[in-house]
Amino acid sequence: SEYVVCALNFTPVPRDSYRLGVPKAGFYSEVLNTDASLYGGGNVGNMGGVYSEPMPMHGHPYSIAVRLPPLGMIVMKPQGG
Questions:
Q1: ∠ CA 78-36-11 to the nearest 5 degrees?
Q2: What is the pLDDT of residues 6-59, one digit of tens each?
């Protein structure tokens, strides 16, 4: 089954290394970042994506550490398998 992981930051402060639980190991591409320069933002993001780590979080066996842009949203999608 396909899924995406979304996170929103309603504060004016970027959040570095914000950890989100994910169900599968692998690479998660940043498919949407509302702070991208394309939308007039400052490009605070995840350089295209991040790899999961075997660190349980939010009831899932893996997690990703992402950079959340200020007053923005990111959408991460697992790649492959």
A1: 90
A2: 999 999 999 999 999 999 999 999 999 999 999 999 999 999 999 999 999 999
Phi, psi of 43 (to 5 degrees): 65, 35
Structural contact between residues 55 and 62, judged by C-beta atoms closer than 8 angstroms: yes
Q: Helix or strand or coil: residue 1?
A: coil
Asked if residues 54 and 25 have their Cβ atoms less than 8 Å apart, the reply is yes
CA distance 30 to 11: 20
Cβ partners under 8 Å of residue 7, min gap 6 = 18, 20, 66, 68, 73, 74, 76
How do the residues of the chain divide into helix, strand and coil, expressed in percent and rounded to 5?
5, 50, 45
